[in-house]
Amino acid sequence: MKAYRDPIRLIPVLFLGVIALGTLLLSLPIATADGTPTPILTALFTSTSAVAVTGLIVVDTATYWSPFGQGVILLLFQIGGFGIMTAATLFGLMAGRGFGLRDRMATQVERSRLDVGDARSVLKLVLVITLVVEAIVAVILTARLYVAYDHTFGEALWHGVFHSVSAFNNAGFSSYSDSVMGYQTDAVVLVPIMIAVIITALGFPVMQDLREHRLTWGRWSLHSKITVAGTGILLAIGFASVLAMEWNNPDTLGPMGLGSKLLNSAFHSVMPRTAGFNSLDVGSFEDETLMTNYLLMFIGGGSAGTAGGIKITTFAVLVAIVLSEIARRRDAGLFGRRFGHAIERQALTVVSLAGALIFSATAFLSMTTPLPFEDLLFEAISAFSTVGLSTGVTGELPPSGQLVIIALMFIGRVGTITVATALALGAAPQKFRYPEENPIVG
């Protein structure tokens, strides 16, 4: 019963419960297109990917699952996305309350400061933004699919709603076998999906700042400034790298006109950050493009949203530490604010743990499958960062490899929240200090 008294332990228990329920429902004969029971590992993998809003699949969502099965998947990533956002935001409130000014941290790895009166206000913000954005995107997609493509109104509505909910929750699941590659020249389909992904990948602390202070940059919190600036920089890097490296690739951008090249480069600059939709064949990317994707996926998006990765603020803290050390400045910081030593240690801890986990998982996958190392590394980073992009090897992994990916998806989504909050809340006061002595570094 202790887990139910400790919210940090309660959230993983709840997520495991939803994953278990999803696995049970997806195992039913009614969940498959041919009416046969789903193997338990396939159901578990799909349920975990949906609840963790990742998007990696071992069977084709469009053809393997029945309408009931697809509906279960949609419900799972809606619950997973909403639960993750509220959990991260509420944990942020907990970590910022009940402490004196000296102990209150300006930023956290998985949350930012939210100056709201109570949890009810946070939940209301999450719910309103979720419903409004999903509804607007669903209407646009439904109208476009019905008017411009060979869809009945019912089909257009289903695909529109499915992709809207999936995009807003950064789930990356698609009701089409080729994700959205069939719409790579249609900005009316791709742009709304991009916007939905970017909005929620900023995180709700940023949305709270935008609601209260609009575009008044000087009144934004440090967290919001770092997240917005970092998002812009990473989107620009992703756009430029895809456009330059894939410009002449005959399997991706090569045959396209200038407008389509720009559109698909922009689309893919958004997706590695967290979402997992693809309008281009990721398996045909140049090695240089895959390397850029490693970095973008590992960093991820904003805190207290549906984005995965180590988060923009974590990476920004590390960059600031490096720059301050090179410049021999006493303190590390950004935008006229310095970071506390506690937040610097948290950032280093999260990155170290994430790197060690991805390294270990990739090494295990390399030992158990003959698949190319670069594909396995891509798969591991995508799973841990809950991105959902794949070079096409997910279904080829052996059962042990699929279990590793399942663990990565769960830890990457739930573990980062709980570990970061534990760092913020669980520090016990140390009543003594050892004598100082420094080893040689570098």
Name the descriptors.
transport; monoatomic cation transmembrane transporter activity; mainly alpha; Cat_transpt; cell membrane; single chain; transmembrane helix; 442 residues; globular; 62% helix; two-stranded antiparallel sheet; 2 strands
Distance between the termini: 47 Å
Strand order of the largest sheet: 1-2
Q: Low-confidence segments, ≥5 residues, pLDDT <50? A: 96-118
- How much of the sequence lies in strands comes to under 5%
Q: What percentage of residues falls in helices of 4 or more residues?
A: 55-70%
As for the number of domains, it is 1
The radius of gyration computed from the alpha-carbon positions, rounded to a whole number of angstroms, is: 22 Å
Order of helices and strands: HHHHHHHHHHHHHEEHHH
Give the CA-based shape: globular
What does this protein structure show overall?
- With 442 residues, this protein is mostly helical.
- The chain has one domain.
- The protein has 16 helices and 2 strands.
- It has a two-stranded antiparallel sheet.
- Strand 1 and strand 2 form a beta hairpin.
Q: How would you summarize what this structure contains?
A:
By secondary structure, this protein is mainly alpha-helical. It has 16 helices and two strands.
Ordered list of secondary-structure elements with their pairings:
Layout: H1 2-5, H2 7-27, H3 40-51, H4 61-64, H5 67-96, H6 119-148, H7 153-168, H8 187-202, H9 204-213, H10 222-245, H11 258-270, H12 287-299, H13 312-326, E1 333-334, E2 337-338, H14 341-368, H15 373-384, H16 399-425
Antiparallel strand pairs: 1-2
Helix pairs in contact: 2-3, 2-5, 2-16, 3-5, 3-16, 5-6, 5-7, 5-16, 6-7, 6-8, 7-8, 10-11, 10-12, 12-15, 13-14, 14-15, 14-16, 15-16
Transmembrane segments: 72-95, 122-147, 187-206, 226-245, 294-326, 347-367, 403-425
GO molecular function: monoatomic cation transmembrane transporter activity
Keywords: Cell membrane, Ion transport, Membrane, Transmembrane, Transmembrane helix, Transport
